[in-house]
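INFO batch 0412 | record 1 of 1 | parsing
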Amino acid sequence: MKISKELLEQMENDEKAEMEELTPDQVAAYKEMESYFDDSLGRFKASQIITGKVIAISSGLATIDVGFKSEGLVALSEFPEGGKNLQVADEVEVYLEKVEDNHGNVVLSKEKANKIKIWDELVKVYDAGEIISGAVVSKAKGGLTVDIGLRAFLPGSQIDLRPTRNLEKLIGEEFEMKIIKMNKKRGNIVLSRRILLEEQRKQLREGTLEQISEGSLIEGIVKNITEYGVFIDLGGIDGLLHITDMSWGRVNHPSEMFSIGDKVTVMVLKYDKEKERVSLGLKQASPDPWVDADSKYPADTRIKGRVVSITDYGVFVELERGIEGLIHISEMSWSRHVKHPSKMVSIEDEVEAIILTLDKDKKRISLGMKQIKPNPWEHIAETYPIGSQVEGTVRNLTDFGAFVELEDGVDGLIHISDLSWKKIKHPSEVVKKKDRITSSVLSIDRDNCRISLGIKQLQPDPWDDIAVNYPIGTEVNGKIVKVTSFGAFAEFGDGLEGLIHVSQLSSEKISDPESAVAVDDAIKAKVIKVDTTNKKIALSVKAYKENLNIPQIEKEQAKLENIKKEE
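INFO prediction complete | emitting tokens
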């Protein structure tokens, strides 16, 4: 509300009238009081910390006398522990927000006084470059919020020497840090823990570099794991422990041996001072097991080992830490049909084997599993004498015959020509895979581990009686099975085949057999010749059609022989 000039003049006149009515002593006291409050107004200015005295505590408020016209009120919640230990007559520091509000009261704040005091202390720490401790209270955008008396910001890039992925796991942790930035206007405080870590790392690095020398042992902590090795913090400097230098034995991946944070003692293999690169070795810190391998594993020694790797060509067996031997697929079984090593063993299996050879310089050992059992081929002639009948299982069929397993490691071959006295196109016409069959031993090749078997030999040879059963002039019914440029083959009787020469295909003279007959044609013919030695029969359609007698057939046969000679 605006006060008029007339009203102000009236108020001044009233004050003068009041003063005129006072005694001289009263006027002096009034002047003294007025001077005191004028001095108070001069001493107290807003936005500063002042000291006051608690004169009353009531209803959650503390009344503070700061020596002004009126007292100020401060909530007990702004004091430590909610003002639990606050007493009347206690002197406290408070922040003067306003000398006088609209109601004539002093406006005070204990909380702001505390913050200003802490800020001033932090400024001193910042200016001096001193270390400060703080607790992580929450995750913030791009970093962490830390309590150092006031809320401060710790950027993600300043938390550690390496980026930290999971910030939530750091909540509640307490760190030592340095203040790197303060803005009083915005109330911002930025911290860095990395600065301290870099300083510590620098000091450690200097000490570590003095200790490093090729061949020396040094302790470190596994810092990072890769496919090719692990990086080890030696104290301010990192060294690489390559996978090939981890163990004298096989290591498929460094994680099999190490975890991040592991303490390990390693040997310095190489140190490049200019590039500050350190190559480390773990296996070199222990004796090379290959040094006396030849004396521990002489040839023909029987050993036990653990399967550590399986390949297409064999399996690797660990004899002891750092020493492995190879069992080639050909040395796994006396049988020749091991398709893959995994069919016989698995990783971690314990196997028995015999030392075959050892090359100490190349660090190679050849092992054999099949040598644990007797070689069935050593006494094969006694076990399967020629002419004896044997039983076995058809293991495999090929175009040229059937393989029969007589026992583990011993297979015999029945050639297609020994499956039947009849002429067959494929072994499957006589036997099937997994059939249990009986055959006869025809021959043995011990050096090449081969046995020839036959089924037809268990039956009489039909050619022994062929001349009796099919004398010259015998009429036969048959079927053309093959046509060639010189004639056609016909099947007749019990699987027998006879050749019908082109001159015997017809009574008429023909030059192309295909013009006279075709495969699967039914024919009638006469036997004109039987060769038991070479197991051949000659047939003639012409002799059948002309109903030639034996003398005529013999004449025809003589003509045929002359034709063949001319051809």
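INFO post-check: The radius of gyration is 56 Å.
INFO record closed
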